[in-house]
Amino acid sequence: MNITFVGGGNMACALIGGLLQQDYPAGQVQVVEIDSDARARIKQQLGVNAVAALTEGINGSNVIVLAVKPQQLSAVAGQLAPLLNGQLVISIAAGIRTSDLSRWLGDYGGIVRAMPNTPSLIRAGMTGLYALPTVNSQQKEEAANILSAVGSIIWVEQEVLLDAATAVSGSGPAYIFYFIEAMQQAGTELGLTKEQAKLLTLQTFFGATQLASQSDEDVATLRSRVTSKGGTTEQALLSMEQDGVKNAIMRAMHVAYERAQQMGDELGGK
Ligand SMILES: NC(=O)c1ccc[n+]([C@@H]2O[C@H](COP(=O)([O-])OP(=O)(O)OC[C@H]3O[C@@H](n4cnc5c(N)ncnc54)[C@H](OP(=O)(O)O)[C@@H]3O)[C@@H](O)[C@H]2O)c1
């Protein structure tokens, strides 16, 4: 399977790096990238072919991954439309709906939309995927294989659920960083050095998420198990409840979901 990435930025390089690490043949991957420095870097660091022109780049390709910025996608799709002859098109551009991309590609049906997140850059990503009904099962498998190179994937049956995935996993790393920031800051206020607070916080996040993912029990049960009557954890959680922390997090995610929908309207109109 020959794959062409259009746009050779951070996300494309992460995906290519992941594929190569899984022994995907470098000769079957190429990149269309307008910036000559970026092309040279891609060739040198990844050992894959990088070209400037779309016409040259998609020759003999079965899958085209659109990895340009959302604002650049309609222009790229306009150039791509007359060159398509049945290839699977995967878009990783945040916020652009398949209906808009399909229209820009001349009512094209072979589209999968992916919503990865930033930990994909270290191959610990989480990607939501949605396929138009006209995409066949082999093409869905191809899309799954490409995005699995940088982490875990889930398929959603309705595209609107990608906006929900955006609110959970797309924006999620920033919520976690925010929580980490608060824990580190409190740690230093309590007398720990910055380094100590950082290690204690990060390892606690790592350990807790590992425990939650390896346990058969739900997180509420795991939480109640570390909350002894009259202990420190109980006091801390009570304080968070009184401050409305859980509700505030949930409200923030609803706001992120609404913003994802607005962005789809704004970006798709262009
Ligand atoms: N980074 C993430 O964690 C993340 C997460 C979820 C989704 N995404 C999505 O992934 C996409 C790529 O993100 P990124 O962070 O990899 O962006 P990026 O680093 O800016 O990469 C995009 C690359 O495409 C190039 N480009 C622009 N127009 C082109 C054209 N017509 N033909 C060929 N190449 C072109 C850009 O060159 P110039 O710089 O010269 O314009 C740039 O090198 C975005 O749509 C983003 O929404 C990213």
UniProtKB/TrEMBL annotation:
The keyword NADP applies. It comes from the Bacteria. Pathway: Amino-acid biosynthesis; L-proline biosynthesis; L-proline from L-glutamate 5-semialdehyde: step 1/1. One of its GO terms (molecular function) is pyrroline-5-carboxylate reductase activity. It is found in: Cytoplasm. GO terms for biological process: L-proline biosynthetic process. This is Pyrroline-5-carboxylate reductase.
